[in-house]
């Protein structure tokens, strides 16, 4: 493993950081989340047209840049640093890789260029709060599709008709589900007897589809409730008989890259909150001297710095492991757990060290605190991530002793 980044990778990071620092300050973030889409459309078009951000990890044959997980991780670290509200996570990180992995050639040619160009936004819809389970980050039983309803009532059900597939059910907490032009819906087919989980494509404006933007703890991650009442859908891929096995394998592969990207995003957010805190304690004076000169404050900041650097190393390693066979999912889960813990610690200390102003809605410290709490609810819990990684490594196998 070569731990050094290439000149191209460093340029991606530098260019994106410079643009976001100019266009995505705290005031711009607060204004963007209150728009109907929940993000700045003009900034998203600039990121797509000038930097190719949504197609960074997509093949050049489909209009993408043709980079890999490492470049995507570096980009997510920079978007996390400023808490950028955008369709990057829902579309480029979660939905597009599944279309590239499972879609037919016609589906790939029809959909991926639009996603890579930023004109088509996409979202992955799974029932309830089961996203981390669907990606295999916290659940050991992904192949059965129990997270998608298990063939019983609940979740989203699919039935085959003479003119195609119809979906009915409900999904909550769908990232960018209220505004995405394309929905990638995980649904249960075959009833209890032939239980299997399949992925379906649902277009914006489909008859019977109701989308409601939810009030979310973290406004920078818009979420929606989807209600599907006999909605016409297109099967992703050509072979429905592959069923849960192919879908589960694709979701597990996605979990490796998505986990690394989410870890890097959390590291970027932690680093952003840390930098703001260091700047503040260097300027805020008490007893005639900056509070950052007090030994107790120095010790707290030093502990946070160590946590951030450890989480960053884990995220970078997870990006490398995502391209390796069998090692990616376990590493991604551990990296994500480390990053979520670091973000929670930094965000909490940022509020405390900013003093009275850190508790106000006007200050940006609460944005980082909400991101930390929301991410652990959406993609954790941390102990679940670590338990699943340990299970993958065989630490709980009978007869094995961990040393």
Describe what this molecule looks like in 3D.
The chain is of the alpha+beta class and 403 residues long. The protein has helices at 7-23, 26-32, 41-51, 69-81, 88-102, 105-117, 131-134, 243-283, 295-321, 328-353, 365-379, 382-392, and strands at residues 122-125, 156-161, 164-175, 182-189, 196-203, 209-213, 223-235, 285-286, 289-290. Among the domains are: 124-243, Butyryl-CoA Dehydrogenase, subunit A, domain 2 (Beta Barrel); 246-392, Up-down Bundle (Butyryl-CoA Dehydrogenase, subunit A, domain 3), CATH 1.20.140.10. It contains 12 helices and 9 strands. The strands form 2 sheets. Strands 2-3-7-5-4 form a 5-stranded mixed β-barrel. The protein has a two-stranded antiparallel sheet with strand order 8-9. It is globular, with a radius of gyration of 21 Å. The two termini are 25 Å apart.
